[in-house]
Task: structure prediction
Amino acid sequence: MFLLLVLIPLFLVLLLNLNLYKVNYKIAVLIAGLFSLFQMFFIFSPNFFSTGLVDLLSLRFECDGISWIMLFSIAIVSFAAICVLYASETIASGKKFHFVNLVLLALAGMNGLVFVRDIFSIYVFIEIIAATSYVLIALDKTKKSLEASFKYLVISSVATVMMLSAVAILFMAAGSTDFIKVAQMYKEYGANPLIVVASVFFIVGLFIKGGVMPFHGWLPDAYSASPNPTSVFLAGIVTKTTGIYTLVRLYAIFDFNYSMQLVFLVFGSLSIVIAAIGAINQDNFKRMLAYSSISQVGYIVLAFGSGTILGVFAGMFHLFNHSVFKSLLFVNASALESRVNTNQIHNMSGLASRMPVTSTTSVIAFLSTAGIPPLAGFWSKLLIVLALWFSGNKEFAVLALLASIFTLTYFLIMQKKIFFGQLKEKFNTIKEARFTIRLASLFLCAITILTGLFFPIILNFMAFLFSF
Amino acid sequence: MENLYIHIFLLALIVIISVFAVSHYRIIRGAILLGAVSFLVSISLFMLKAPIAAMFELSVCTGLITVIFISVISLTNPVYAGQKKINEMSMVKKIIILFLIVAVCGFFIYLFDEKNINWIPVMNDAQKTVTTKDSLWNLRHVDLIGQALILLTGIFAVVVLFKKGKEEK
Amino acid sequence: MNAESLILFKFYIMIMPILFIIGIFAVMTAKNIVAIIIGIEIMTKGVTLLLAASGYFGGNPEIAQNFIIVMIIIEVVILTIASGLIVNIVKKYDSLSTKNIRNLKG
Result:
């Protein structure tokens, strides 16, 4: 049944492009929005985990709890991105149609990625997602977006080559590329220097794709120079799926290796601290959000470094929360840009009185990022700190707590500069953003607040999921 | 024994030609040398008992990719007139690259001596009786869906990137 | 595994880092955008050879062939996207030099 989530986007793309009938771009956007809503509700259906269709075609797909969380995040973020697309005024209508096609293909790729259990198929689906991202970033063909897409292409191809060479060596040692067989091989020959080098190559390749600190070179440019709906899509789910989700699967194969834990701890904390310092001085709103993304991904990697099931669970929960509130922030950034026509922070001030919905949802998203009590971000950060503390890495737990103060600092500065303060003269006639952008903001904000308030119910539900 | 020498000779030739492909100033020569590297890689694949992959590599990489490169360079060529520079930089570059490669070679020969590689369970010269190609492709259905998706992406990429929009004059 | 195969195997394991370093050198010190893509292609050839060697020495040359075919198809699509980007960059800047694409910081 869950195979439908991969096959339906493929059929929709073929249907939309048959050219037997003229398809208006509005109908295409509507169909894509309906599909993402369908995905959001389909994963709650009772026989979602049944494997009838998969056995019929003898594929090697499976769905378990971690895949379920990823599917939910993917559905939410793609819905927000399509809402922003509908209201965008800087992209022509023909290009909006192609945007919908590419987003449907990327959705098929991401849904497929969370189901496969085979290291070569992971490479294939990561390349599908990456190829659609390159075209999505360069969609409006301005100078900056072309340059950002080219840089992303080059750096991501280098990472792909490293990943694939590791896949080749693991394939030779294990005789097959299935997760189970590679895990068995790793138990026997895990200390062999050739296999250690191969694992290091794989992990470095995934770090480059996921934007962890020493290898984050492409990320601020790609997030800030791409058109608005692409930023929401890219920042919300693409980087995290190709980088962090694959790390979790690899971590399970390599059996929670101790030196891998150390690598995660070190690189995670490096990400958190240096990216938080880098975000303080940025002038462009989207670049500041990009550095904040790198910092939060550092939190997720740090959670995985604790080496326990609680750590993995805390990391996945923070991944879900981060995709919700980061896409909320990018939706608001696109709302601001569509009305104020600038991304520079020193040009904006005092917008709270003219754009109430945008400013309120931004404030809630900022507070959730910083980890303030009843919102969702607080619970996930608390779980990360607890997981680190109970697994014996007490100094990293303290570091995670102290770095929250950095997060709070730069977000308070941004909030004051953009939304509060004196209203400038030229902003007196600004209206609120268009209807679909407001809808997306309110929807994401509602998810953040509800996840925070009803946390015990969600905890039980996730414990049920993780029993798979 | 001569099998071993042919392999090593091919690999050495690949390395040398790729060094030349990278360090030339005029990139059309670089693209043609890349085609030559693809041809040699295809022969190597054929000797490693992968005939269908060798045919694929020959037709796609030596043919299609070299043609794509040369067409991209020719499409953008008229802007390139009047930029003749002396070839001195490329000589220095070549020597630096070759030196780095020899250093890496020596390092890796020291790193992996024979006792470390005795872990692989099945180690013969591919004498295993393998099933035919068709039944093996049945094992990897998932990649078929992946290939369909990536080909569709390629089609949309060409449409988006190569078509002139209405607003661009 | 006899000694001769072992030596050959060592050479094949060595070819991948060598081509990788040549490719990275090309990517980092290129004065021309197309040279960057040539560097990426050379790295991909290295991985192709490594995949074929891992199939041959591991006893599974058929499965490795499938991997190589899928990888070549994906590589062609990525190269098409890269050439599309290059053509559009040249339309904006009228030159193939890499100085033009160093504008964004970070």
